[in-house]
């Protein structure tokens, strides 16, 4: 086994006191912002502290007790974060849930965590989930954020604020007592894994877990005390909670809420964050948007952009290979960054941002695209069960394609004999709610957490992730095939937006391929093709282009890994259809079910 360790870090300051500290230290600075009809609105840290005090008093007056759980089903709007802070302040445990989950999943989760109160967003959420309270043993009360969504059996956010303000003085001593009584090993939140298979499990995340992660990220140099970040990933996901709640509390930075991920790009252009964290699918979509912008809005500077991108790639590749970089190349790269490519970064709203990617590996081609326009995207790695990132690249280190970095201070990693990545840190969860057997299975000897991922540690101590242990395809001939290595060779080339390799218990590997609509449109324009999206899928030129990309991928793969047949799909994998998780990871079993006819047909013909 190979092992990598980093220096430890500890802290004794709890999250329950940080809001008041920020109200005193940076009280006039913006804490929580949002867009209202295109205009930016904000609460300062002092205003946020006042609001949270009122909501916490309202929760106490409503009957919420210390240690109880409170469920939140809402988008990333200011009230969601205010409620989260208030729940924690009065000694209870916030449980944010995905608004996109099925009612079956919701009933399972709510029955499992037995909340004493549910905070629901608006009509759509209330209609889908409020009735579930009668199937939950705790029969939680309901508060709706939008006043017009209030039902006969619920109250609304405005009423909660009024109640809290009226009871604030008498509740103040009780809230202070509860806040100070919180132990570092008490649950700070409960995160239900979105899960690519099976029902979600409630992961217990303690204050100690999160305090370690926050302090380690600060020590690593990734986090800036004056950072401005955008909250757009679901707050039911550990990564968004770490950046938008716990790090913001610790640093006193500003968070802008983006309730609708479809509006992320225009939101970035208004907010211009100094820090931006996203999942690979978002980075890929933004890369496509940038390419479309370059090809349609900067045609008069096409030669200049191409030349500047080549300079930046030359500089980048020399850094990758740790080759000497001349003063002349450094100067040319500096000029290239500040020239036409700055306009591309401004189009993305990321000209000031320190950029990170997590939740899954980012393809080398995507990293290189961003390097070519002057953006370095660093990667990290962690799980819900590790309270967020444990492994990260560092902003001051030489980049290395295919790696996700080294342990944060206090974190350790090693590779088991079967190739599984094992992690150990103060961020490791104490276990799953009500699942002692699953909690025990999570750990190997001596506190090493089993990640379920396969990887290796390179000679520089950097982690390389190669695949998911549970996602390895075992063909009917007994060959073990890692699907991600196949998919990564297909996605991003030409106009391919998504791909899924299939072959478990089958004689050979086939692939479902989804074109990116924007890139396919660009391809069609370049090749003089006409027709709707669906018509283009069967066009001989399009099919020939896909066949060429599959042939390219196969040239890089061993014979058992090669794709023998493929099918273009008219629609992509999505959260709405249940084929992606809320953090945009593929749900392989769900895709197999939804596209079972297409998969079966692939095994009756050959296209490569």
Structure description:
The chain is of the alpha/beta class and 608 residues long. The chain folds into three domains: 32-261, ANL, N-terminal domain (Rossmann fold); 271-434 and 442-469, 3-Layer(aba) Sandwich (Rossmann fold), CATH 3.40.50; 472-602, 2-Layer Sandwich (GMP Synthetase, Chain A, domain 3). Helix content is 40%, strand content 21%. It contains 21 helices and 27 strands. The strands form seven sheets. Strands 1-18-19-21-22 form a five-stranded antiparallel beta sheet. Strands 5-4-6-7-8 form a five-stranded parallel beta sheet, with helices on both faces. The longest helix has 25 residues, at 157-181.
Features:
single chain; 608 residues; alpha/beta; Rossmann fold; GMP Synthetase, Chain A, domain 3; 3 domains; 5-stranded antiparallel β-sheet; 5-stranded parallel β-sheet; 21% strand; Acyl-CoA synthetase; AMP-binding_CS; ANL_N_sf; AMP-dep_synth/lig_dom
Per-chain topology:
Layout lengths: L1 E4 L12 H8 L4 E7 L2 E6 H18 L6 E5 L4 H12 L3 E4 L6 H11 L3 E4 L2 H7 L11 E4 L10 E2 H25 L5 E6 L9 E5 H13 L8 E4 L6 H14 L2 E4 L6 H8 L3 E4 L1 H18 L4 H19 L6 H12 L1 H9 L5 E4 L6 H9 L4 E7 L4 E5 L13 E2 L4 E4 L4 E5 L6 E2 L3 H6 L7 E9 L5 E6 L4 E2 L5 E2 L1 H8 L5 E7 L6 E7 L1 H10 L6 H5 L2 H16 L7 E6 L19 H7 L1 H7 L6
Parallel strand pairs: 2-12, 4-5, 4-6, 6-7, 7-8, 11-12, 13-14, 14-15, 26-27
Antiparallel strand pairs: 1-18, 2-3, 9-10, 10-20, 15-16, 16-17, 18-19, 19-21, 21-22, 23-24, 25-26
